[in-house]
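It is worth pausing here to work through a concrete case rather than discussing structure prediction in the abstract. The textbook approach is simple: state the sequence, then state the predicted structure, then interpret. We follow exactly that order.
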Amino acid sequence: MSRNKDIVILGIESSCDDTSAAVIKNQLMLSNEVAGQSVHRAFGGVVPELASRAHQQNIIPVVDQAIKKAGILLEDIDAVAFTCGPGLLGSLLVGTSFAKAFSLARNIPLIEVNHLQGHVLAHFIHENILDHKEPVFPFLCLLVSGGNSQIILVRDYLDMEVIGQTIDDAAGEAFDKCAKVMGLPYPGGPLIDKLAKEGNPKAFTFSKPRIPGLDYSFSGLKTSFLYLLRDEIAKNPDFIDLNKADLCASLQYTIIEILLIKLRLAAEQTGIKEIAVAGGVSANSGLRAALHHEASRFGWRMYVPPFKFTTDNAAMIAITGYYKYLKGDFASLDAVPYSRVSIK
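Step two, the predicted structure:
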């Protein structure tokens, strides 16, 4: 499809506990509205049924706000893109159903988007007309979130291959579950990041996996962390409170080192020096600092997204929809959401 005409995409994201809508004109973001769900904090994690109910309440107001903030009319929208998966099925159904209804009512194309692909393509969102810093193909993307830890070879906007991934738990899951064991409230990852700045990263040693190739594993680390707490609490019930900052710093240091070992190997094997990071864990200050250090050490050109694009948001869905629109890659009204899938 020709790029001579401005293309306006409405993006819908509802894969987990954030309801988001965004409007993008070509690569320029006009709006990106997000409604969170605080109800899950009391349960120490996302409750799927509560999440889907909250999405039902939030979807129409969020979309309305996104369109108003973008300063466009309904008839300006060329297509609606929505997250089809992976994610929580109940949450995905809300966004999918809304997108289908919007597409049908406006008689515009429907575009299904892989959530993971959206995280990678967040690097191509422009916040202003002078914003052109983006990775050059081919590049490697370290995608790290609560549900995924992957190294992705990105050959083009819609040509991606997972060359390494976790065989069990994700890095973000390791952060959150270890935080829960220490009694930190949900979500624990940001709190560990904050406390780690006050601690000694070498205070405690945890096991690192010995997985061949470029794949990850974090289950052994979680077990090692749990056993340390069990043994030390048996000696001193106040162990966690007395060592919380050091525990957080050591845990964070270990997770980051596990991630970087495989990323360095991937860069070495492929010879690629264009390196990007995406996903919720990419907001971690320790990981960002370590990546920039590695970049200066190995001559990488490092791309780190703005904080607003690290967590789930509809702008990344809209930008992916834009590139799929250019290819004429549209979905039918028979499209169904999926809870698990890799990048395809």
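Step three, interpretation. DSSP finds nine helices and ten strands in the chain. The chain has a mean pLDDT of 94.
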